[in-house]
Amino acid sequence: MTTATRVLIVDPSQESREVLCALVERMGCQPITSARTAEAVELTRSSRPHLIVCDEDGDLSRDSTGLAELQRAAARTDTPVVLLGTVKFPRLAQHPGEVVAKPYHYAPLVHRIEAALANRRAAA
Amino acid sequence: MPSLFVIQGRDQGQRYELSEPRIPIGRTNDNVLQLHDTEVSRKHAELVRSGDAFLLRDLNSSNGTFVNGKPIKERQLATGDQIQLGRTLLLFTGVKEDATLHDSRVDIIPAADAHSSRILHSISPAEGSDLLATPADQTQSPWLAKARSSLQVMYHTAIAISHTLDIDQLLARIMDLIFEWVEADRGCIMLKDEETGALAVRVRRQRRGIRGDERIAISKTILDYVVENTEGVLTSNAGEDERWDPAQSIMRMGVREAICVPMKGRYGVVGVIYIDTSLTPQMAMEQTKKFSQEHLKLMIAIAHQAALAVEDTSYYTAMVQAERLAAVGQTIATLSHHIKNILQGVRGGSYLIELGMQDHTKALGGEEEPAGPVDVDSAKKAIATMRKGWSIVEKNQERISSLVMDMLTFSKEREPEPEPAELNEMVSDVVELAEARAKEAGVELVYRPGANIPTLMFDPEAMHRAVLNIVGNAIDACEGCATCRVTLRTSIEEAKRMAYITVEDTGIGIEKDHLERIFTVFVSKKGGRGTGLGLPVSRKILQEHGGRIRVASETGKGSTFTLEFPLVLPPAEGEHEHHHDVQMPDEALPGETYVQSEAESA
Predict the structure, then answer these.
(1) Closest-CA residue to B128 (of B158, B165, B163)
(2) Backbone angles phi, psi at B73, to 5 degrees
(3) How much is the ipTM here?
(4) B562 by DSSP, 3-state: which?
(5) From CA B154, how far away is CA B133, in angstroms rounded?
(6) Mean pLDDT lowest for which of A36-50, B48-62, B216-230, B376-390?
(7) Do the Cβ atoms of B347 and A106 come within 8 Å?
(8) What is the pLDDT of residue B346?
(9) Helix (H) or strand (E) holding B322
């Protein structure tokens, strides 16, 4: 894994972002952070991350339009998304494996992130 | 939203919103609408939406699908239709038609313009019953007298029904009315159990002079007939009536004169009313009867009224219960979500500590005890990681503690415990506590204590919580703003006998349409970070002190929260506590929250 692998972390909680950054850095990846999905959509376009890890609370809209928009932006660049939380709207979950229910443990999350990045590399 | 409301059956009180284009209905949990009814088939029926119309289709169910009592295979539903599936009865409400909403053909004319209208007579509801009073001349015909008397009974029944939502009280009153107007010796009202369908006695009466310990024996044959055929019966001698088989129970028990009528409401029989009387041997010989067809008709009418009231009351109770459950569900969901986030924070902090410990072990050469040269830099980094993790754990401990305190404060009615306390000191404590959080968020926290504020009587612990919640919100509101400052001020106004704490922020402000709802419990614009309890708790504390919270806000510029409460000085030595009369400003009553909008503050 090279340092050029970028992981976009979307989480409204600063402490969660810190923990996820530490975790991603230890995997040899470069973290990019955002508190909200709206900002994350822009970062997906500009920074072209290899993976997006997004907490559902990063979307403040009532009907998850922020998450849907982020997923569309991710789909345009073939970027996998790992969603943290409960998906209230089934249309947002393309694959059940993309969702990690809260409260999650970090070790399984690390495996999920590694698997998503490995799939991405294999598909490239 | 179109809906189905369960008015009878195990799911009574449940409301199902019909949002899907196709809604399978059945007993198993793979149906969108699952009914807990053993007489409902696994795949019983389906509702198909086409625009605003709903088509109900039976899916070859074992017991059939009924709309308004008629079996159907397929039928388009209209608002008010009753759907029977097994023992479950549902009420359909379709898309609201707004054709009548904008009808402008009715005008309410202001009093000044209504000069052509004047009140000629007025009459109270109590006087309305005089309409049915017996005329003074007593020259009316016997038929008219009976009709008038029956009307009076119905009138009083209607009044009794309108006065209570307690079913037992209502039934007792109806039984009293029956005994006032019908010459019965004994009587009872039985209601049907919704689960089992069995009749159970709810009210029993006997005329004075009748032995109280005498049991009322009612023929099951009669009860079954009344319930199944929804017909009232008058029995005086079973042997003369061909409907009763002499071999059945009625003959074994002997016969009195009795009336048994079904309580038939809108959706079925909810129970029966039974009255009886015994005949003297002479009356029996002369074939004299105490109960007549007129009595039977009147009893049927009373029973119908009573049934409507029982239905209304039980549906009202079911709806209240459903709303309560929904509120409890919302509370649990909101709190669970917040607790889940706190737990996630604890796990995150713990994970960092774990990583730090692993790194520290490696820095020490892979063993607990240093085996080789110690990598000092790595060891320092590992300790920093552990510290960061621990600070996250501590922060979340604080959050859970704060949540529990807010929940306790909000949930219990309590009197504040005022004691002599220093306002400036209490606010200073809040500032000290919030400083770390403000620093982390890059917010400048400014405190300007008021001069010459004497020792006041208030509950310092509660007030501390009220101010801390508002300061916490103010810090959060500044996130991402160009200028991030929260300013706290204290002051008193001797003339108005009021004390003030002002929290002003340069944050994002509150949108005008959200301003009215900021004190509503569980309403938060902070997503996963907000419990929606902070402001309601602060308001409650101020209300308990006889004060209130005023808010002025402008979107993009910030908000000012003013906490004000009556200025009460501690009693002088040997004197009782002295409360001043406080005149709150006109715009709100004491204890109310006055929300000042952007326009007012400008």
Answers:
(1) B158
(2) -100, -40
(3) 0.83
(4) strand
(5) 13
(6) B216-230
(7) yes
(8) 93
(9) helix B293-363
What are the pLDDT digits (tens) for B414-469? 678 889 999 999 999 999 989 988 888 889 999 999 998 999 999 998 999 999 99
Q: Decide if B265 contacts B305 (C-beta within 8 A).
A: no
| CA atoms of B73 and B57, how far apart (whole Å) | 6
Other CB atoms within a 10 A radius of the CB of residue B439 amount to: 12
**CA B572 – CA B551 distance, rounded (Å):** 35
Coil, strand, or helix at residue A115?
helix
- Give the whole-angstrom CA distance, residue B270 versus residue B258: 20
Amino acid at the residue B85: L
Q: How many contacts does A have with B, using Cβ atoms within 8 A? A: 57
- End-to-end Cα distance, chain A: 14
Q: Which ranges of B39-182 would DSSP assign to H, the alpha helix?
A: 125-128, 142-162, 167-181
Between CA A62 and CA A45 the distance in angstroms is 24
CB contact under 8 A, B352 and A13: no
Torsional class of B546: left (φ above 0), alpha (ψ -120 to 50), beta (otherwise): left
**A103:B527 CB<8 A:** no
Determine the residue type at A42.
E
| Cβ contact A62:A88 at 8 Å | no
**B237-276 burial string, b = 16+ CB within 10 Å, else e?**
ebeeeeebeeeebbeeeebbbbbbbbbbbebbbbbbbbbb
CB contact under 8 A, B352 and A16: no
Task: Provide the whole-model pTM.
Answer: 0.58
Question: B271: which strand partners?
Answer: B191, B263
Please report the beta strands in B59-213, taking only residues with DSSP state E, as ranges in sequence order. 65-67, 70-72, 74-76, 82-85, 88-93, 186-192, 199-206
Question: Residue B287 to residues B154, B185, B236, B255, B322: CA-CA distances in angstroms?
Answer: 30, 18, 10, 13, 55
pLDDT digits (tens, 9 = 90+) for B462-499: 999 999 999 999 998 888 788 899 999 999 998 999 99
Contacts of A111 in chain B (CB under 8 A): none
Sign of CA dihedral B230, B234, B240, B246: positive
User: Searching chain A, which residue's CA lies closest to the CA of residue B479?
Assistant: A35
Nearest CA to B356 out of B402, A117, B364, B335 is that of B364
**Which CA distances in Å does A76 have to A54, A69, B285?**
17, 11, 99
Helix (H) / strand (E) element for B262: namely strand B257-264
